[in-house]
Amino acid sequence: MYYHAVKKRKPMELLQNTVILLTGFLLSEMLVSTGTHQRVIDYLLGRSGNNLNALLTAVLLLSYTLSIFISHTIVVISMIPVINRIVTIAQDEEERKSAASLLYLAVTYGTNTGGMASLTGSPQNLLAIALAELYKIENRTLITFVSWLGVGLPATLIQLFLGRSIILFTAKSFCTPSLFSSGRKVPCALPHKPLRLLTSNLILVSTLSGLQFFFKPEPVFLSLNLIDLCFVTYGALFLLVAFILPKKNGQTGVMLMNLIFFLLHLTGSPLIFFSRLFRELESRIGLSLKNIYRTLDLIFTFLFNSVWNRCFQEPITNLELPNTRAKLSINLILKDLPYVGITLVALTGAALYLLVTVWNVQTATTLENYHLTTIKSALLYAVEMFGNRYIRLISVVLLIIFASELLSNSALILLLAPLSTDLGAQTALPPIMMLLTITIAASSASMTPLASMANTIAFGSIKKVSLGIILLPGFIMNILAAIVVAAVFSLLSALIL
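Request: output the structure for the sequence above.
Response:
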């Protein structure tokens, strides 16, 4: 049955999530294009008082706060230019490696923890709600946007405090004096206007998501309800303002040029993807791939100008130059995407898909029953070794956390959701609390780059990250997260149910 759970997801919910992800990413690009991220970096470095601990704390809190409202994956992608810029300030190679690894820990732990704080902060949270309805789990109506936030916020703040302590303890072993230059000019205040733009968009998206969750309005046009139409209109207007409308008033005939420039780059995005991927791989592994990506660049330039010349009779010789006629330049956005990180995510997903496909030698129902029986037996055997039910719960949470270091978070939730009743009976948790425990545990892994999509993208895109530095703190975070998650849901079960 868990294979069919994903099929129950409504297309309009996917549409809304796509709009939120797209606009969140474009909003972050607008802030980068105006230099806001550089001003924030200067502010953080200046206000940290030549203190690495203060800088790490600021990045951790910023990532956590944004991820409560925006997808943690988008927050990571948005923070990558900030992190890479900070890393380049360090003058020594070892300092760069230390700074990159510590900032990687701060941004990934902050985003993953923030994503657990609110119902809309992570796709896994919404998946848990859908599974509770699918399996008709008792007391599922207790889960609302407000109740999740009421529990998630204090619980994740505890995890955030523990994670900060581990990161700062790890930072004691490293020295990065060149990050803090006494001659550096620091703005006296944050750039308020761009940050107000960010805040207003966050409030708008959060309000629309909350209205959709609480009221669930009926369709008014095709299968779209009023909130769906608001999301579609918001997304369309955002694309129009970002890429199509002239950057300056009074520019005539520019909208058509911006539109064709935008569409041609979208059409040629596969060529751009592989060209940029080979460039990144060349810089990372030292293997010369110039002939490949230069050939791809020439092909794209030829195809682009064959259309552009017909329309405007003026070839563009350098497609890496920004489109100064629009607020955002699509070619620069495509250029700066974390292609190695995206590729790692895609390869991981493809490997899991092939594993399931190759293994699927029986009918789906038989295979499903086989999986459930095997997983159920393994988990129940593991927990039955302990007499204390709280220790049993911690062991279950630990197994889920460390399993999600290598397996998809969503796949684990889908796999284990049918076992909520059996596992709850062994750990003294009601089924609904067990389902939520499984969900949060599957999102709590912090050790490896495969722990979450955010971790994978950050590891593939933040330069100089060292596995030797990040593994041990991540391992300790996993252990502490298991204790916190088990304690929170044991306490909730005793107080509420």
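Residues 467-496 form the longest helix (30 residues).
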